Amino acid sequence: ILKRLNAGEVIVGDGGYVMQLERRGYVKAGHWTPEAAVEHPEAVRQLHREFLRAGANVIQTFTFYCSEDKLEISGNVPNITGAQINEAACDLAREVANEGGALVAGCVSKTPCYVTSHSETEVKAIFKKQMDDFLKKDIDFFIVEFVDHVEEAVWAVEVLKTSGKTVGATLCISPHGDMKGVPPGECAVRLVKAGADIVGINCHLDPMTCVRTVKLMKEGLEKAGLKAHLMVQPLGFHTPECNLGGYTSLPEYPFAMETRAITRWDIHEYAREAYNAGIRYIGGCCGFEAYHIRAIAEELAAERGFLPPASEKHGLWGAALEMHTKPWVRARARREYWENLLPASGRPKCPSMAPPADNYGK
Amino acid sequence: ILKRLNAGEVIVGDGGYVMQLERRGYVKAGHWTPEAAVEHPEAVRQLHREFLRAGANVIQTFTFYCSEDKLEISGNVPNITGAQINEAACDLAREVANEGGALVAGCVSKTPCYVTSHSETEVKAIFKKQMDDFLKKDIDFFIVEFVDHVEEAVWAVEVLKTSGKTVGATLCISPHGDMKGVPPGECAVRLVKAGADIVGINCHLDPMTCVRTVKLMKEGLEKAGLKAHLMVQPLGFHTPECNLGGYTSLPEYPFAMETRAITRWDIHEYAREAYNAGIRYIGGCCGFEAYHIRAIAEELAAERGFLPPASEKHGLWGAALEMHTKPWVRARARREYWENLLPASGRPKCPSMAPPADNYGK
Amino acid sequence: ILKRLNAGEVIVGDGGYVMQLERRGYVKAGHWTPEAAVEHPEAVRQLHREFLRAGANVIQTFTFYCSEDKLEISGNVPNITGAQINEAACDLAREVANEGGALVAGCVSKTPCYVTSHSETEVKAIFKKQMDDFLKKDIDFFIVEFVDHVEEAVWAVEVLKTSGKTVGATLCISPHGDMKGVPPGECAVRLVKAGADIVGINCHLDPMTCVRTVKLMKEGLEKAGLKAHLMVQPLGFHTPECNLGGYTSLPEYPFAMETRAITRWDIHEYAREAYNAGIRYIGGCCGFEAYHIRAIAEELAAERGFLPPASEKHGLWGAALEMHTKPWVRARARREYWENLLPASGRPKCPSMAPPADNYGK
Amino acid sequence: ILKRLNAGEVIVGDGGYVMQLERRGYVKAGHWTPEAAVEHPEAVRQLHREFLRAGANVIQTFTFYCSEDKLEISGNVPNITGAQINEAACDLAREVANEGGALVAGCVSKTPCYVTSHSETEVKAIFKKQMDDFLKKDIDFFIVEFVDHVEEAVWAVEVLKTSGKTVGATLCISPHGDMKGVPPGECAVRLVKAGADIVGINCHLDPMTCVRTVKLMKEGLEKAGLKAHLMVQPLGFHTPECNLGGYTSLPEYPFAMETRAITRWDIHEYAREAYNAGIRYIGGCCGFEAYHIRAIAEELAAERGFLPPASEKHGLWGAALEMHTKPWVRARARREYWENLLPASGRPKCPSMAPPADNYGK
Question: Pfam families from the xrefs (chains A, B, C, D) (predicted)?
Answer without folding.
Answer: S-methyl_trans
